[in-house]
């Protein structure tokens, strides 16, 4: 009985983290550049909701693989573009453009840490 309550609480926390990923992806995808990875992360988070709601083991395993790939993609994106985004000059681009690109970077970083913490729940659930 207690095990089921703990499992339900973990599932609720996992769903909350997925909603946080969706929120970060939606907000970050409004940026002017570099937002393709956020749209990929949005698709993976929506797939995760389907996997959780259907209680399918095969969808859960597929999500675990997609989550691992998303983490690799996030790390690659952060390595490739963080320095470039951080050093965008205000003289070349407008203030709103710079704000939108830095917002994209911030949402990518927050989403990465949320996905990283979600990966711990995937390991616990397995």
Descriptive overview:
The structure is a single chain. By secondary structure, this protein is mostly helical. The protein has one domain (2-125). Helices cover 85% and strands 0% of the residues. It contains 4 helices and no strands. The chain is elongated, with a radius of gyration of 16 Å. The relative contact order is 0.18. The mean pLDDT is 88.
Proportion in helices = over 70%
Low-confidence residue ranges:
none
Number of helices: 4
Mean pLDDT: 88
**What is the approximate shape?**
elongated
β-strand amount: under 5%
Keywords: Membrane, Transmembrane, Transmembrane helix
Transmembrane segments: 12-30, 36-52, 64-81, 93-114
Sequence-ordered SSE layout with sheet pairings:
Blueprint: H1 2-28, H2 36-54, H3 57-86, H4 95-125
Helix pairs in contact: 1-2, 1-4, 2-3, 3-4
In short:
The protein contains 4 helices and no strands. It has 126 residues and is an all-alpha fold. The protein has one domain.
